[in-house]
Amino acid sequence: MPIRNIVFDVGNVLVPWDPTGIETRALGEERMAQDAFVPPLRGNPIWLALNRGELSLGEAKARYIAEQGFAGEEIDRLWEALFASFPLIPETRALMDDLKSTGYRLFAITDNVREIVARLKRDYDFFDHFEVAAVSAELGFLKPDPRIYRWLLGTARIEADESVFLDDVERNVDGAKAVGMEAFVFTTAAKARADLRAMGVTLPEAV
């Protein structure tokens, strides 16, 4: 079937996502080198709960302090560094415009925190161009859980074999393929253009 629907991840596709860099800027290398240090943004159960929508940022801060020994000031710096870390990737935003101008429908699947999504919607307009966005914090499950892909397909009423998913993490790409979608690992917008063209997607040349 021809591709009709382009489904975007958000982190490291439309905005950067560098949890190690955020932790380093907020907490410092010396703190991170301590034997008892637990990375707050990398596989941390509190962070995962935030992404599943089970906690607010305030509730997560309290748990980081009570359960993992972080100081309140450290989490404040972490949140500050986190929200300062999302400049738009303009080449991907331009890719969205080119796809939409040639008649493709745009959607999103993102593991994300409610407060971060709100900030991205405040600062940028790309969410406005997604007909439907599957956000983990609103649904309660994370990629590559098949439910998040099936939720998008069912809610948007689109066919899996007419849809391609772009994500920077291979296991998430594999999760999309497992439910019948086309998918590939996103590295750069230029490479994504080439990959989409190889699938028969019509695109103008990037300016």
Estimate the mean pLDDT confidence.
Answer: 97
- Per DSSP, the total helix count is 11
The Rg value, from CA coordinates, equals 18 Å
Structural class: alpha/beta
Low-confidence stretches: none
Would you mind describing this structure in some detail?
This protein is an alpha/beta fold. It has 2 domains: 125 residues, Rossmann fold, CATH 3.40.50.1000; 65 residues. Helices cover 48% and strands 11% of the residues. It contains 11 helices and 5 strands; from the N terminus they run E-H-H-H-H-H-H-E-H-E-H-H-E-H-E-H. It has a 5-stranded parallel beta sheet with strand order 3-2-1-4-5. Strand 2, helix 7 and strand 3 form a beta-alpha-beta unit. The two termini are 29 Å apart. 32% of the residues are buried.
